[in-house]
């Protein structure tokens, strides 16, 4: 075998290996999303799911860990085939079987406060004094650690997105009256947030507690919690469901519990106050997970 032929064979083996285990994916959002991004490319390590070739060769999704950055198909739309849905990126926060809660933006999993080790971003409001603030405002606007700058009251009040450490540093600037993180109140109901039913008063900062479904686990169903799991049962697991004031029917049978057929996940963006994640569209079915983002 000549050296040229050897290189061609090795190159072909590498290409086959890459196509089986990795994928270059263009997402329509960003991990630190401002709500209007055009997305970017991620190199993704694929995991087992029904949409992947050579599925038996791929690692199990059980190897995914909390805090991993994953790329997945948009679960909020039903009509296109899976491969034709938008691809999104998010940080894996809730695993199958977890109980998840957000209280005043703090993440609680299985009754334990989680110390999130990755860099997070939040929305703040800054109020300036009336004296010589023009140059200071320009400094804020030009600060590369500030992701978004919106005028609320000209020359006086502005909103911006930054990491907590950046906001803390800016508090010491002369000419600032205060900087405060913007937080919604408990039971401040906004229809934008999943499950988008009036008896579940959740928002982006106060969310849950919610159980994240796990395959083969049975959950009691009531008219109070069915709104959270209805889409799973009728869209992702393809059962006919009828709900009235006093009972729940699945495939024509009155039920008070349901055994999930798939694992589900819950993702959040690192910019917790902009963009869309599971707080908006709910659970991510296991077959919607493309894989773990390695590098963008």
Provide structural commentary.
With 296 residues, this protein is an alpha+beta fold. The chain has three domains: 122 residues, Umud Fragment, subunit A (Ribbon); 60 residues, Alpha-Beta Plaits, CATH 3.30.70; 42 residues, no CATH class. It has five helices and 20 strands. A seven-stranded antiparallel beta sheet has the order 1-2-20-3-4-18-19. The longest helix is centred in the N-terminal third of the chain and has 19 residues. The mean pLDDT is 87.
Helix content: 10-25%
Largest sheet: 7 strands, antiparallel
Please give the CATH architecture of the largest domain.
Ribbon
Strand content: 25-35%
Task: Please identify the top-level CATH class of the largest domain.
Answer: Mainly Beta
End-to-end gap: 38 Å
Please state how the strands of the largest beta sheet are arranged side by side. 1-2-20-3-4-18-19
Class inferred from helices and paired strands: alpha+beta
Indicate the radius of gyration in whole angstroms. 23 Å
Could you report the average pLDDT, rounded to the nearest whole number?
87
Return the CATH topology of the largest domain.
Umud Fragment, subunit A
Helix and strand sequence: HEEEEEEEEHEEHEEEHEEEEEHEE
Counting H and I runs of at least 4 residues, what is the number of helices? Answer: 5
């Amino acid at each position: 075998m000549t050296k040229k032929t050897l290189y061609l064979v090795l190159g072909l083996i590498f290409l086959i290996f890459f196509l089986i285990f990795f994928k270059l994916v263009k997402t329509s959002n960003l991990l630190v999303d401002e709500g209007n991004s055009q997305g970017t490319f991620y190199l993704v390590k694929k995991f087992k799911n029904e949409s992947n070739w050579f599925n038996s060769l791929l690692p199990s999704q059980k190897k995914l860990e909390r805090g991993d950055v994953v790329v997945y198909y948009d679960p909020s739309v039903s009509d296109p085939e899976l491969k034709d849905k938008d691809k999104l990126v998010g940080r894996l926060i809730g695993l199958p079987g977890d109980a998840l809660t957000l209280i005043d933006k703090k993440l609680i999993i299985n009754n334990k406060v989680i110390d999130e080790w990755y860099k997070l971003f939040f929305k703040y409001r800054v109020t300036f004094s009336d004296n010589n603030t023009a140059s200071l405002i320009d400094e804020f606007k030009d600060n590369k650690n500030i992701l978004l700058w919106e005028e609320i009251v000209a020359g006086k009040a502005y909103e911006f997105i930054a990491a907590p450490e950046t906001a803390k540093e800016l508090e010491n600037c002369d000419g600032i009256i205060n900087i405060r993180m913007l937080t919604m109140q408990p039971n401040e109901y906004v229809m934008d947030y999943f499950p988008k039913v009036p008896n579940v008063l959740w928002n982006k900062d106060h969310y849950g507690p919610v159980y994240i479904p796990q395959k083969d686990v049975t959950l009691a169903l009531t008219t109070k919690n069915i709104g959270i799991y209805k889409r799973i049962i009728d869209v992702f697991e393809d059962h006919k469901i009828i709900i009235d004031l006093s009972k729940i029917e699945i495939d024509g049978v009155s039920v008070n519990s349901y055994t999930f057929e798939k694992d589900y996940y819950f993702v959040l963006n690192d910019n917790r106050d902009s963009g869309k994640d599971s707080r908006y569209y709910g659970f991510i079915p296991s077959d919607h997970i493309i894989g773990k983002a390695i590098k963008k």
